[in-house]
Design a protein that fits this description.
six-stranded mixed β-sheet, metal ion binding, DNA damage, Uracil-DNA Glycosylase, subunit E, Uracil-DNA_glycosylase-like, 8 strands, alpha/beta, UDG_Type-4/5, 8 helices, deaminated base DNA N-glycosylase activity
Amino acid sequence: MPAVKQRPERPGAQHWIPPGADLDQLREAARACRGCELYENATQTVFGAGSPTARVVLVGEQPGDQEDRQGLPFVGPAGRLLDRALAEVGIERADAYVTNAVKHFRFTQSGPGKRRLHQTPDMGHITACKPWLQAELAILDPEVIIALGATAGRALLGPSFRVTKQRGMLIPWPTDAGEEGTRRSAFVVATVHPSAVLRADDRESAYAGLVADLRVAAEVLH
C-alpha cells in the first residue's frame, strides 16, 4: 500500500506578523499569510475592519462566500442581520470593529454550478490564525469582545468553550490569553453566529436570543 502523503507542517500566522505593526500594516501583511492551507482555494485574505478606537470588537468564525469575494467581513446576509441586531441594542456598527477567528474562507464545492458551501474551520485552522486575532485585540484594547458562534468562542476562550452553555454571560477576558499590550479589564460575551439565526426553524425566536445576548454587551458599553 502506498504511503499516505503528509501535508508539510506550516509555521502558523506568527511568521507573517511584522513587529510593532498597526492595524493597516497588519491588514497588508495578512494578504501574504500562508499559515495554513486555506489560502490555497480562497479568493483573498479577509481581515478585520472598523474603527481603530472601537470599544467593542465582534469576532465571527470565518469569511463567507460574499466576504471572500469582496474582501470585507460580514457583508453578506448574516452581516446585514447582525447590523440590524446591533442597531436594536444601540451599538453602532461604525463604532465597532468586526473580524473573524479565521481569515480565509473554507468551503467545499457541490452541484452543477459548483456552488461554494461553507465548511467549518477545524482547531488547526483556528490555532494557525490566532496570532492575527491576538494582534488585532492587542492594538484595539476593547472593553467588550463579542464572540459570534462556537468557533469564535473557542478561539477566544479555548477548546472547552460551549456556546450553548456560556452565551449571554459576562466572561472576564483571560489575563493569560496572550494579547500582549491589553490594558483594560475586558469582558467576552458569547452568542450564536448570525448565520445560525438565518438557518433556524424559528427564526424570530433565534433572532430575539441574539438580540438579548448583544444587549448584555451593550449594557457594559453604556
